Input
Amino acid sequence: MSRADEDRVSQEAATSGIRFLPVQQVPAEALAQLFDTITADVDDRWFHPHPFTSQQADALTRYDGQDLYYVAVQGDEVLAYGMLRGWDEGYRIPSLGVYVRPDARGQGLATRLTAFLHRAARDKGAPRVRLRVYPDNTAAIGLYEGLGYTFEGEECGQMVGFIDLR
Output
């Protein structure tokens, strides 16, 4: 996705009333509610970067490291969760993870949140972003290929994709 496309997507998010906030700016209870939704979602099998517990939600809202954790909020509702992880462990290329609530899917929110996270990664000096996707998660594969990711091999039964941010 080009920078111009990212700018357009950011404008669309702003006009729809969606805000992207660091998880530290939302109540732990709101994040825990989203985590409950993730756990109940049948697609949870595809998204498991960490435990989805109220304890984890509380820890993330107090997190003070290099990795980035964001939510997409509309009004008081947390609609989506995104992260760029790996900097805390010393990696130059962060790994992306994005989850959108089932009732908020199909509206381009995953694209908007991913574009926002790409900008954040670029601002932190990341040359690329990495992700892993299960081969049967065709919706995610289509999304990421449409955003410019190329898949380069496999790791732990998942396809590994990269996008160049330069």
